[in-house]
Amino acid sequence: xxxxxxxxxxxxxxxxxxxxxxxxxxxLRNEYFNIQPQHIDFISEDICPEVxxxxxxxxxxxxxxxxxxxxxxxxKQEPKYEIIFVPCRGIVKSNxxxxxxxxxxxxxxxxxxxxxxxxxxxxxxxKVLKEYLSHQHISTSKSDKSNKSQRSGRxxxxxxSNQNSTSSEEVITNFNKAKQFSVELSLDARSKLSTKxxxxxxxxxxxxxGEGTFGVVFKGEWRKIDVAVKCVKTDFDSIDDLIPSxxxxxxxxxxxxxxxxxxxxxxxxxxESICLVMEYCPLGSLKKYLQSNPSTNFLKLRFCQDIAxxxxxxxxxxxxxxxxxxxxxxVISSNPNDEVVCKVTDFGTSKILIDKSGxxxxxxxxxxxxxxxxxxxxxxxxxxxxxxxxxxxCLLEIWLGRSPYNPVKFxxxxxxxxxxxxxxxxxxxxxxxxxxxxxxxxRNRSSKRPSFNEIEKELTVILYNEKDKKTFTTQQTTxxxxxxxxxxxxxxVQIQGIESEVIEDLRSKTIM
Length: 512
Prior knowledge:
Elements (H helix, E strand, L loop, with lengths): L22 E3 L7 E4 L2 E4 L11 E10 L5 E6 L1 E2 L3 E6 L2 E4 L3 E11 L4 E12 L2 H25 L6 H9 L3 H8 L4 E11 L11 E10 L3 E8 L2 E8 L6 H17 L8 E6 L4 E6 L6 H7 L4 H20 L2 E2 L8 E3 L10 E3 L7 E2 L20 H6 L5 H16 L12 H9 L13 H7 L10 H60 L1
Parallel strand pairs: 1-11, 3-11
Antiparallel strand pairs: 2-4, 4-9, 5-8, 5-10, 6-7, 7-9, 10-11, 12-13, 13-14, 14-16, 15-16, 17-20, 18-19
């Protein structure tokens, strides 16, 4: 096992570049040497390489000749992976074998199909080469005679000969300068899944489906799965400067798993870009959904509940969202009876971890003014309760189905910040079932605002009552319909009865 360097390239000193100048290519089907297996497989489940971990296999090099043989395995060094052989070069005595270890290290979740060059020399190479060419000439002559007598029989044998042998013209060209043979092994590998993704497996589609302060979001595809690809903006910092904070964020995202939080699939960092790959929600943001789809009170309540659940999970993990708003909530279902109807997103690039002491870090004017708590703007201090204030504005917007701030009265961000900082509050419709929750969430003193644990419990009660009300209404409607149907049936029977009596009366008169 080789000691791993700090660089991502683990095996640099053990890779010898392949130079075809003095090489004579031949097939592995020869009488002088052999390498087994000819196909190196790192695809089976038990040998799939872990990302950034070394996986190993072995091959055997055998010398069938009477000469001493030397070999070089030419490894590969690519941005996505490295392949080395230990030993990468060596000597094999006549009629002897050596074992060579194949080591591969992949740097992202990827699939590899590679050709590995091996150069082989002998102590009297020219002698061996002449013998080989002589045998090839005899073999070719026999093949030509066979082809003339049976042209229609040209099949796998002749095609194999054409593929694995060189033409007479190539023989003349390469013979004088050839110093060693070269053969080719094939290698296939499929890494185990990780959050480090292969850039060539991520495909994005225009136009963008969203844009924020920190990046542009595209619908994309990764391994035939629809995904959302967030390309981080690099206008303000170089990619190298951003990498440490992005990796810190990735470490956090890898640990977060909740039904009400958007799922993190992986990331990709290249010289030109940084991409985060997330779960794709075809119904889009809650803001757009509310603007274009009429929603029942029950569905609105479910939106509120799932946002509260998502935020409770974040706060339990000491994460402040800082920019909670309907734009950062994605709808996954319009059926209020589904387990989850929406998920909180975009909490990574705008997150801040809280000290164990419970105090936030000093920061100012972070987030969207319409949803920003007054203490952020006036004091520049952040804690969990700023998200609770933002949640209150979200609640009101969900109920109204539009922005709670009238654009005529509040034409810009400054007017909203001035309104909020002065302690003024928006008007809540009387029929809003969670009016009390909104009032408690946007209290001016942040310490008086409830936690998301308390909010979620209150919403569960409201939802239960709303469901009971809905069930009762449905039952009443069913009973009314049943009563109407029964009355109509009785009326019909009565009419039919009268008609029968009239018909019977007419018949009796006719007989008389």
